[in-house]
């Protein structure tokens, strides 16, 4: 249980409080309702005792999901471990905008997880349902490309030894998750799936192992892994970067177009994606070139984008299959994610690329 004494010690260790300053009391409120699938997020409003306190007035804390089945998913996919590792071992080495982290710990036996972060409440949270626009999408590309460029075909560092990789450590547990949810997704949300996609679903799921392998045959880099709008905080004119990236649970080594394809197929309306995806693929490629990536053609970038779009349909299936019927926003997210992802696959004629 978190107490003022524990919070005081944690903030002193993080260099936010002196020995004669302490947390006197706090209040708690849930935030991000209907967003987290494997965890919960709380805001702690803090009151201090002592002179000259400059510590944060509020903190955001992330916990493993209290529902055992949801927590089991997070542990199986190593989501809690990955995010704690990111903040403790990797965050200082990546030039991407992210909240400050004051504490991060994970118990592999119980799945208990706690991450204490800077409260980005001065920023506006993105909304996956409302969708991303062109300017916001470019801000996200600006934020992730330094990460992609820094680790472009350069993922052999010791601190990435246990990283999730699309063709190995991520493959088997994720395939099991897809296999355990896709039928339920179709049963609940079949009305969101076009007939040609529905007819191709058994071969799509059956070919998922090969699709993982094809994703890994391309250039590999370190990707955010889950860049939907609910994981973005946007700056509408104050100090600081234009966007801050949250939720590093699925940081992974994969096809570099993973992030862009995820964002556009899940967090852009169908009409918006159709209107801006060509410009954004070109913008992404130009950013990589600007950051020193060589030997990567625009043609290859487009092909990687299409491959990643096809792969990202698995996310929509998992979201629909794991839907919480008590969560109205979760239902709307599942519906829109399926419609958008399926439309991206149909529009770009990707069903014919399902591997045998």
Protein model, in words:
By secondary structure, this protein is an alpha+beta fold. It has two domains: 4-118, Phosphorylase Kinase, domain 1 (2-Layer Sandwich); 124-353, Aminoglycoside 3'-phosphotransferase, Chain: A, domain 2. Helices cover 46% and strands 16% of the residues. It is built from eleven helices and eleven strands. The chain has a five-stranded antiparallel β-sheet with strand order 1-2-3-5-4. The chain has a three-stranded antiparallel β-sheet with strand order 6-9-10, with helices on one face. A hairpin with a 7-residue loop joins strand 1 (22-31) and strand 2. Helix 7 runs antiparallel to helix 10 (298-321). The relative contact order is 0.13.
In the predicted model, the low-confidence regions spanning at least 5 consecutive residues are none
Please state the average pLDDT score. 93
Cα distance spanning the termini: 51 Å
Provide the helix percentage. Answer: 40-55%
Largest sheet: 5 strands, antiparallel
Please provide the ordered H/E string of secondary-structure elements.
HEEEHHEEEHEHHHEEEEHHHH
What's the CATH class label of the largest domain? Alpha Beta
SS strand fraction = 15-25%
Structural class: alpha+beta
**Tally of structural domains:** 2
Tally of helical segments: 11
Q: How many β strands by DSSP?
A: 11
CATH architecture grouping of the largest domain:
Alpha-Beta Complex
Can you identify the CATH superfamily of the largest domain?
Answer: Aminoglycoside phosphotransferase (APH), C-terminal lobe
């Amino acid at each position: 249980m978190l107490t003022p004494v524990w919070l005081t010690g944690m903030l002193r260790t993080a260099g936010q409080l002196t020995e004669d300053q302490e947390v006197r009391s706090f209040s708690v409120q849930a935030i991000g309702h209907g967003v987290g699938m494997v965890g919960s997020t709380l805001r702690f409003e803090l009151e201090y005792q002592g002179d000259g306190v400059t510590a944060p007035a509020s903190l955001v804390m992330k916990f493993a999901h209290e529902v055992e089945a949801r927590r089991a998913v997070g542990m199986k996919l190593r989501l809690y471990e990955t995010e704690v590792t990111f903040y403790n071992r990797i965050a200082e080495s990546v030039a991407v905008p992210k909240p400050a982290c004051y504490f991060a710990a994970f118990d592999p036996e119980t799945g208990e997880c706690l991450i204490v972060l800077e409260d980005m409440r001065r920023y506006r949270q993105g909304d996956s349902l409302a969708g991303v626009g062109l300017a916001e999408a470019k801000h996200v590309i600006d934020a992730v490309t330094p990460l992609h460029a820094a680790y472009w075909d350069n993922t052999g560092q010791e601190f990435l030894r246990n990283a999730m990789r699309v063709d190995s450590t991520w493959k088997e547990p994720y395939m099991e998750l897809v296999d355990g949810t896709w039928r339920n997704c179709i049963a609940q949300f079949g009305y969101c799936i076009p007939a040609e996609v529905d007819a191709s679903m058994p071969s799509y799921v059956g070919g998922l192992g090969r699709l993982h392998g094809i994703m890994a045959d391309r250039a590999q880099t370190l990707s955010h892994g889950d860049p939907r709008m609910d994981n973005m905080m946007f700056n509408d004119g104050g100090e600081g970067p234009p966007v801050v990236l949250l939720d590093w649970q699925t940081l992974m080594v994969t096809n570099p177009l993973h992030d862009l394809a995820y964002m556009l197929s899940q967090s852009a309306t169908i009409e918006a994606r159709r209107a801006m995806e060509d410009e954004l693929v070109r913008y992404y490629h130009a950013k990589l070139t600007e950051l020193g990536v060589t030997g990567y053609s625009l043609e290859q970038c487009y092909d990687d984008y299409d491959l990643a779009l096809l792969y990202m349909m698995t996310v929509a299936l998992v979201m629909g299959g794991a839907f919480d019927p008590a969560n109205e926003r979760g239902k709307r997210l599942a519906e829109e994610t399926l419609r958008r992802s399926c439309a991206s696959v149909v529009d770009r004629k990707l069903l014919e690329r399902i591997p045998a």
